[in-house]
Design brief:
Radius of gyration of chain A: 20 Å
Oligomer: homodimer
Order of helices and strands of chain A: EHEEHEHHHEHEEHEEEEEHEEHHEHEE
CATH superfamily of the largest domain in chain A: ATP-grasp fold, B domain
Largest interface: A-B, 50 and 51 residues
Number of strands of chain A: 17
CATH class of the largest domain in chain A: Alpha Beta
Strand content of chain A: 25-35%
Low-confidence stretches of chain A: none
Mean pLDDT of chain A: 95
CATH architecture of the largest domain in chain A: 2-Layer Sandwich
């Protein structure tokens, strides 16, 4: 641990949502302080942070002051403007690195990176205009999904094409943003691997979890996932290949479709991931601590799973179920301190634990 | 949950040490914010709190402003001046209640309260002067321990009498503070029960832990403790009796000596307790969350133990062992963010977990 961040150092976190909140708690547990940078006032992470800057990502002076107040910078979401990264990186290191960010910020670049690594993805084609889309539909067929290349999450910026007739409306919904048409993948279920790579190149992965989405938003993650031993090994090796190729430092979420042809990479997220929340109550070291360990130069922690866990997201009005959930056995509650329960808003999650 | 503290409410915590720090994280997990009141600057809890007031307990204006900014007040240590409690209680409720505090603040009152409940304690006698001490030594004998009635912790304010000859020096060490002579108890080991009582009078206890002290400071807690089923039941019932007698709300630590004659109460602490830190990695709901649940009007959580755990305190220079501990399997690290590793100072703890 020669290059370990000294105890008491301040870690800067871009983004003050629930992921930043849980990263902040993990950083504290390892003896660090956090400084949250977030455009919106009173973000969830502010409740458990040492310092908070409320400023937009376009405020280069605020970014510079922030960067000077911290030892390293990390982030809880991938859509950080390049200009903001430039301003920060002039003063301190950013983990995970910018290559990982730039790849995950653009679905087209991401898919081509994965293909270059020899990994399987859904069939895809770039779509900048109606002619591209017509050609892509010809090649990939329907059903397929038109997605913006950038800034999509939780099913936003996505339009489904049931038949070629849907092409025009789908393209209009992209509002001239560069897009990508993705072919439909016949998969039996989705799993994800939460993997980490340390400053010294050590790689570790948590047991893959099985994800169920409802309305484009993650609903539950279950460990163990339904996978053969061979699939489990494939999933972990594939994640390691991605991390090593990027000389990645930190935790990454890798979403995979389980198909008859093998594991197909859906997308990668260069950060802690909702499908890794189960680790908080299933392992001695959770994904948030693993991320802090990686970026702070610690050895990776023991993420072996001591229990079976079902993680359930509490979305919007689900929060009203808390009084009943609070009486459940073997259930750990994690709320995010958000004032207003809007539809589709992640308000918290619960981990239901069964010792193995 | 009709009297439940609304989500987003601010919980005031007196004391910003590691207990306040871990209480603050638990409060956030349940959707609350915390405001720490602490005389010393930059306390451990400040790293994970919504707000911090730095002021002495004699500053009644600061106390009043603090009380007005929070919905309820709790505390991480028992030696809070009565005048401070008066100032706070004029504005908001304090949990656990003042009777519990006043009893635990004075070893003589505590022992007499426990005896009145029909529980066993060490033999004891009040000592205000040399005549009292001579009489007490006559009655109780040696070896015995002279302790200040108030403000002792971690072995401070205690003098051992190996023979009656030690009486004069021991009394001088009390510096005229009212004291109590406690007879020596022949015990095989010490256990503690971390128990909780809710606003509605529901009581729950974690599995008793077995404690080993070194130099008067807790070194390790091991669960399961060496106890027969009957002793385990006795320990939990005894703790429940204390909580109910005090109409207590919150978590209490009850230290017990295991002797041939049965369980003898050593002392009670009206707060979360170092010997309950194992619950963080051994249960779905830990002692910190249990305390917040109790004082916030939630039902008590499921504190059943899913794993065997050995908690080890990291004291003073023990912190230098972190690089080695960080590589251990099945080990969860909890550091307190204290800058300076002074001898006898609790810097953190680790929980070594073995699934049952």
């Amino acid at each position: 641990m020669t290059d370990t961040l000294p105890a008491g150092s301040v870690i800067g976190i871009l983004g003050g949502g629930q992921l930043g909140r849980m990263l902040s708690v993990a950083a504290a547990r390892l003896g660090y302080r956090t400084h949250i940078y977030e455009p919106m006032a009173n973000p969830p992470a502010a409740d458990v942070a040492h310092a908070v800057t409320t400023a937009p990502y376009e405020d280069l002076a605020a970014l510079e002051a922030f960067a000077k107040s911290v030892a390293i910078v990390t982030y809880e979401f991938e859509n950080i403007p390049t200009s903001a990264l430039d301003a920060l990186e002039a003063h301190c290191p950013i983990h995970p690195n910018r290559r990982a960010l730039s790849i995950s910020q653009d679905r087209l670049i991401e898919k081509s990176f994965l293909r270059d690594l020899g990994l399987m993805t859904a069939p895809y084609a770039a779509v900048d205009d109606a002619a591209d889309l017509a050609e892509a539909v010809e090649e990939i067929g329907t059903p397929s999904i038109l997605k913006t290349r950038r800034l999509g999450y939780d099913g936003k910026g996505q339009e489904r094409l049931k038949s070629p007739d849907d092409a025009e409306a789908a393209l209009a919904a992209m509002k001239d943003a560069p897009a990508i048409l993705e072919g439909f993948v016949e998969f039996s279920h989705e799993v994800s691997v939460i993997a980490a790579r340390s400053l010294t190149g050590e790689v570790a992965a948590f047991d893959p979890g099985e994800n169920v989405h409802v309305g484009g938003i993650l609903s539950t993650t279950t460990v163990p996932a339904r996978l053969t031993e061979a699939q489990r090994t494939d999933a972990v090796l594939l994640a390691a290949k991605i991390l090593n190729a990027l000389k990645y430092v930190g935790v990454m979420g890798v979403e995979l479709f389980v198909t008859k042809k093998g594991l197909i990479v859906n997308e990668i997220a260069p950060r802690v991931h909702n499908s890794g929340h189960w680790t908080q109550n299933g392992c001695a070291v959770d994904q948030f601590e693993q991320h802090i360990r990686a970026i702070a130069g610690w050895p990776l922690g023991d993420g072996s799973r001591h229990s079976d866990v079902v993680m359930e997201n509490l979305i919007g009005d689900d929060i009203a179920r808390i009084p009943a959930i609070a009486r459940e056995k073997h259930t750990a509650i994690h709320l995010y301190g958000k004032a207003e329960a809007r539809a589709g808003r992640k308000m918290g999650h619960v981990n239901r634990v069964t010792p193995r």
